[in-house]
Amino acid sequence: MACSSESSGKLSSDVSTSAMMAPSPATVDQTMTPVLFEIFGEMWNVQARLGQGVSASVYGVSSGRSSTAAVKEFQADAQGGDYGYHKERSVLEDIQGHKNIVTLYGVFTNHSAVGVATRCLLLELLDVNVSDLLVRASNQGHSMWMIQHCARDVLEALAFLHREGYVHADLKPRNVLWSAEDECFKLIDFGLSYKEGHQDVKYVQTDGYRAPEAELQNSLAQAGLEVDSGCTAAIDLWSLGIILLELYSGIKLKETVRSQEWKENNAAIVDHIFTRNSMACPAIPVYHLRDLIKSMLRVDPKLRSTADAALISPFFSIPFAPHIEDLVLLPTPVLRLLNVIDDSHLYNEDEYEDIVEDMKEECQKYGSVVSLLIPKENPGKGQVFVEYANAGDSKEAQRLLTGRTFDGKFVVATFYPLSAYKRGYLYQTVQ
C-alpha cells in the first residue's frame, strides 16, 4: 500500500523500539490477512489488530529494523470528513512531551489497493492496559505498590493536561496503559478531549466511569434539550476515583455505580469496600487511599479534588515494595530469574565466574544483553538480574525461560524495575 506522509513536527522517521498495547505471540490473529503500511518511505508489517472502534482501528506494526509502533487508522465520518482524525491529532500535537501521555510519532495518509485513502496516526506502542490488570486480579485487588504507581502516573498526566486547559473526557481502564520502556502508566485516546469551556462533543465518558454532571448532560442531550457545556476537568478525577477503587477491590463496579444506593451515598459504599478488604493491607496506607478516592468521588464537582491537590495526598508519601505478581504483569527491560543459583556456587570464584558466563550465554539467545548481575549477598542473593537492550527482548526471554529447568530446578522469571536496578537497589519483593 502506498501512502503519502505528513510531518507532525514531532517525528523522526527512525522510530525507536517502544512498547496502544504490544501483541504477544498468543494474541496475534493468525487468520488476519497480512497488511503493510508504507510509512515515511519504509514498509511496516501489521502484527495484530489491537482495537476496533466505530471510527478507527488500531494495529501493532513493526519495521524491518525490528522497530515497533501502533497505527491508529481512521475511517471517514458520516459526512465523509476526517473530523475524528483532525480532532485527536490536534490534541495530541498540543500536549506532546509528557512522560505519562502516549507519544505521537507522526501522521500519514494510507492509500489502499482499492483507492480508498485513510488518515493515520503513528503512535508509541504500549503494553498491558489496566482493564487487563483488573481481569488478572481475580477479585483479590492489586497491591498498594501497583495502585500507588498507577494513581501517581495518571494524576501527573491529568495535572499536566488540565494545566494545558484540556479535559480528557474518556478516562477508563482501557485508556491507561503500561510502558515497558519508560516503566510508567500512560494515557491514550484523546478522541473525546476538549478545551475546558469549549466542549465540542455532546456525549462524554464511558458508562461506569461517568461523573454525575456528565450523566446529566448526556441525558439532556439525548432528549434533544439544549445543554450547558459545563463538564470541567473534575469529570476526569471522578473516573480515576472509580478506576482506583476497582484496582483496590479487584471488582468491576459498573453495576454498583448504577445503583440507587451509590447515588444516595457513595461514600458509605467506598467505606464498606475498604472495610471488607482492609485485612489484606496495612491500616494507615489503606485509610489514606480510601480518603484519596473519596475526595475524587464527591458528587459536587466544585468540591472534588483536583489532580494537583490529589498528588500531595499522604498516600504518596509511603514507599511500597512490589509483589512478585506485579513484576510478572508489568514488563521492563530487566529480567529477574529466581530458583536458579545455589548458595554454594556463590563462594567458589571459579564456579561463580562459570555460572555468570553460562547465564549470559543462555540469555543472549533471546536478545541483546547489556549487563548481568548475580549478587553474592542479600538483598538479591543468588538471583540473576539480566538487563536487555529493550523490553521486547526481555519479554521474549521471560516467555521462553519461565518453566525451564536449570541444574534440575524450575526457573521463575519475573521483570524488575530498570530504575531500581540501575541504582543498585535490589529490594525484597512481597510474596
TrEMBL record:
For this UniProt record, the keywords arranged alphabetically read as follows: ATP-binding, Kinase, Nucleotide-binding, Nucleus, RNA-binding, Serine/threonine-protein kinase, Transferase
EC number per UniProt:
2.7.11.1
Residues of the Protein kinase domain: 44-316
What's the catalysed reaction?
L-threonyl-[protein] + ATP = O-phospho-L-threonyl-[protein] + ADP + H(+); L-seryl-[protein] + ATP = O-phospho-L-seryl-[protein] + ADP + H(+)
The answer on whether this UniProt entry bears the keyword Zinc reads no
Where does this protein reside within or beyond the cell?
A: Nucleus
Which PANTHER family does the record associate with it? Answer: SERINE/THREONINE-PROTEIN KINASE KIST (PTHR46962), SERINE_THREONINE-PROTEIN KINASE KIST (PTHR46962:SF1)
> What is this protein identified as?
Serine/threonine-protein kinase Kist
Q: Which gene encodes it?
A: uhmk1
